[in-house]
Design brief:
Rossmann fold; 5-stranded parallel β-sheet; single chain; globular; about 15% strand; alpha/beta; about 210 residues; 5 strands
Length: about 210
């Protein structure tokens, strides 16, 4: 088993249908096969607030406003950081996230909440990732994929005009740890890219115990 000198946090982001869940899973599988200690997690979580958010996504927002929705995301993430992310990092694991606070910045920002305020509130307790993979795809292409894979209409978070605003906020992100990848590449090519970037990061920062 390869031991790391400290934990590494990797987040996958992108609009719905970009392929981030698939790529997060593939990177996790490649790392564990290569005998790295890694955990794969997602947001919203399966916790109390995450379940409320998943129900909201499936059934529509109803009378839940953007600010209240934001509070739910923050409560869910606070629990996620406390129970999963921080303990994993403290145990020198690689933690892979399928969505993180950048999704909240983009999705709730697209509803009119100030993206800078969203980031500020999350940064008060949520650690920055070491690597952020942003898989970019035109919203229309993402919606088409979702319809084809699920065989049903897209949910309330996946309307094209809304996702266009979400995508614009994602596109405006500028972080030194951010890697933009084309979601229109093949699944294998994307997986190879994330693997190469991840292993290069581990080597460059001398994180693997010899």
């Amino acid at each position: 088993m390869h031991r790391l000198k400290k934990g590494v946090l990797i987040a996958f982001e992108g609009v719905d249908g970009a392929g981030k869940s698939t790529q997060a899973r593939l990177l996790y599988e490649r790392l564990t096969k290569a005998r790295f200690e890694a955990d794969l997690s997602k947001e919203p979580t399966e916790g109390t607030w995450g379940k409320k958010l998943r129900k909201l996504i499936e059934e529509g927002r109803g009378d839940v406003g953007p600010q209240e929705e934001l509070e739910w995301f923050i409560k869910d993430r606070f629990q996620h950081v406390k129970e999963i992310i921080n303990p994993g990092l403290q145990n020198n694991k690689i933690i892979i996230l399928d969505r993180y606070y950048f999704s909240t910045i983009a999705y709730q920002g697209a509803l009119g909440v100030d993206p800078r305020e969203i980031e500020k509130r999350n940064r008060e307790f949520a650690p920055e990732p070491n690597l952020l993979f942003l898989i970019e795809i035109p919203p229309g292409a993402g919606i088409k994929r979702i319809k084809e894979s699920r065989g049903k209409e897209t949910d309330s978070f996946e309307r094209e005009s809304y996702l266009l605003r979400v995508g614009q906020i994602f596109h405006s992100l500028a972080k030194p740890f951010l890697y933009r990848l084309s979601g229109e590449e093949s699944v294998q090519k994307l997986s190879d890219q994330t693997w190469e970037i991840t292993t290069a990061h581990l080597e460059e920062h001398n994180l693997i115990e010899r």
